[in-house]
């Protein structure tokens, strides 16, 4: 199985901050990397697919980059509604695996 | 607007079988999507269980493969999950989701709201 490791596991930040979350794959996954946002009691919501493509309807302050084993999700200017847990997920090979999540909290 | 809705018992006894159904609306179960199940134990991360294509082809997580069956019912535009020999470790929120391929790169596109299944006597 391909292991996905996110860092940090939790992060405190303020509205307006620029935030970066990293995701590392245990082997190369090309650009088969997706990012999801999950709020408490809700299903995950797709933000970024294919490492850097912004899902329709997702604000442009979200961006993704990377290829191979190292990936980043960046939020350029945090908004109150962005405080949530973020997961990366690889679709390069089965089983499809997720990172452990990064909880973004208000400072 | 594609919508998915899970249903099934919220409580299952240990050693029993967990059975859930996901009804799809706004899209045909025979579309290009694959149809997936993902679970999330309370306070923990996401685990992919498996997926099915409308012709019946399945992929399962090897960690659960011996206990999992995913089926599709085209007449009802729905798909189902059965997980046998459950233990407390199977207590989780279970989500159904569509898996969409864009230029050969798949992602979970639409999700159900999730349903909590507790394994307890």
Descriptive overview:
The complex is a heterodimer of chains A (107) and B (121). Chain A has no helices and 11 strands. Chain A is mostly beta strands and 107 residues long. In chain A, the strands form 2 sheets. In chain A, strands 2, 4, 5, 6, 9, 10 and 11 form a 7-stranded mixed β-sheet that branches. By secondary structure, chain B is mainly β. Chain B is 0% helix and 55% strand. Chain B has strands at 3-7, 11-12, 18-25, 34-40, 47-52, 58-60, 68-73, 78-83, 92-102, 105-111, 115-119. In chain B, strands 2, 4, 5, 6, 9, 10 and 11 form a 7-stranded mixed β-sheet that branches. In chain B, strands 1-3-8-7 form a 4-stranded antiparallel β-sheet, with no helix packed on it. The mean pLDDT of chain B is 97. Classes of the chains: A mainly beta (107), B mainly beta (121). Chains A and B meet through strand 5 and strand 10 of A and strand 9 and strand 10 of B.
**Biggest sheet features of chain B:** 7 strands, mixed
Instruction: Give the amount of beta strand of chain B, in percent.
Output: over 45%
Q: Please provide the ordered H/E string of secondary-structure elements of chain A.
A: EEEEEEEEEEE
First and last CA, distance of chain A = 36 Å
Q: Which residue ranges of chain B are poorly predicted, with pLDDT under 50 across at least 5 consecutive positions?
A: none
Structural class by secondary-structure content of chain B: mainly beta
Low-confidence stretches of chain A: none
Total helices of chain A: the number is: 0
Distance between the termini of chain B: 39 Å
What level of helicity do the residues of chain B show? under 10%
Shape of chain A: globular
Give a quick account of the main beta sheet of chain A: strands, pairing sense, barrel closure. 7 strands, mixed
Estimate the global geometry of chain B from the Cα principal axes: globular
Give the SSE order of chain B as H and E letters.
Answer: EEEEEEEEEEE
């Amino acid at each position: 199985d391909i292991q996905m490791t996110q860092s940090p596991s939790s992060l405190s930040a303020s509205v307006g901050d620029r935030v970066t979350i990293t995701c590392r794959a245990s082997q190369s996954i090309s650009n088969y990397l997706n990012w999801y946002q999950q709020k408490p009691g809700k299903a995950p919501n797709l933000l970024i697919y294919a490492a850097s493509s912004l899902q329709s309807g997702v604000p442009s302050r979200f961006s993704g980059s990377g290829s191979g084993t190292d990936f980043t999700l960046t939020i350029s200017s945090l908004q109150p509604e962005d405080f949530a847990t973020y997961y990366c997920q690889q679709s390069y090979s089965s089983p499809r695996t997720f990172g452990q999540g990064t909880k973004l909290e208000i400072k | 607007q594609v919508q998915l809705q899970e249903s099934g018992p919220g409580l299952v006894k240990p050693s029993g079988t967990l059975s859930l159904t996901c009804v799809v609306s706004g899209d045909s179960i025979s579309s290009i999507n694959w149809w997936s199940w993902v679970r999330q134990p309370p306070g923990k991360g996401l685990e992919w269980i498996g997926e099915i294509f409308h012709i019946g082809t399945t992929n399962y997580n090897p960690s659960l493969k011996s206990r999992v069956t995913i089926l599709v019912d085209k007449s009802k535009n729905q798909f189902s999950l059965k997980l046998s020999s459950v233990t407390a470790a199977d207590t989780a929120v279970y989500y159904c989701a569509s898996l969409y391929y864009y230029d050969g790169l798949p992602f979970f596109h639409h999700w159900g709201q999730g349903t909590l299944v507790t394994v307890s006597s």
